[in-house]
Amino acid sequence: xxxxxxxxxxxxxxxxxxxxxxxxxxxxxxxxxxxxxxxxxxxxxxxxxxxxxxxxxxxxxxxxxxxxxxxxxxxxxxxxxxxxxxxxxxxxxxxxxxxxxxxxxxxxxxxxxxxxxxxxxxxxxxxxxxxxxxxxxxxxxxxxxxxxxxxxxxxxxxxxxxxxxxxxxxxxxxxxxxxxxxxxxxxxxxxxxxxxxxxxxxxxxxxxxxxxxxxxxxxxxxxxxxxxxxxxxxxxxxxxxxxxxxxxxxxxxxxxxxxxxxxxxxxxxxxxxxxxxxxxxxxxxxxxxxxxxxxxxxxxxxxxxxxxxxxxxxxxxxxxxxxxxxxx
Length: 328
Known about the structure:
This protein is of the alpha/beta class. The chain has 10 helices and 12 strands. The model is unreliable at 307-328 (pLDDT under 50).
């Protein structure tokens, strides 16, 4: 049986990926309590001791617009160092296959929609999350360079914004969907007749149910795939105004939705061209947004925390913190 090492396994994305991969492989999941990927010696020891056939790098540090604005150096440094350490270690220890989970934030701010992989280097990322996007884009190029020079068997996947069970539900470091769910639930609990979101509501995003990413990764493991980047998404976008309406309806909230236009929207639009994923991986996302929202809201209401941060919602995207730990 193939042994798969999954970094970031204790976080939201990692838990969903692991559940899918365990149907097919032996999965060894690691988080920040196990190994510090900022340290090269820890990476080297981890790979040597686990001896995986495949490494899936899902660990990362990122946040919403406010967190990115406050931590540009940290977000770039930690993501770049973690990724460089794990890629180099896998190359030197001859791991059979390496899969990097990059980010839609790597795309230029004004990319023609739908985003095509060939447009990746045609401009600078949206400013509020550029350090994170540039770090991930650099790692994709490192994987490609190691393939060209050393024959490194690396794969670059570019997932769009993700959501689903096990997400982090708060208003500062969450993905946009769980942050909106918390915002609505707080309004319901406190009897508020309105909620206020950052931006104009006109920005659009594409959302992928996290378990569907696990299916895409499984297909990448089982196929011969080059380092040429592959978008992983649904190919369908929705505005934030439309999204909050769907969430409010499903949660039974009838209050007014207001927008603070003095706050940034982030990237104007995000929607991926998924042709390459269909052709190379045979991948098509199976979960409709409405169904995924139902599952996510149900999971939240069953597992909701006692307290939530009351900061404004930003249209951002966060993954797990160092080696899968939650970012502060």
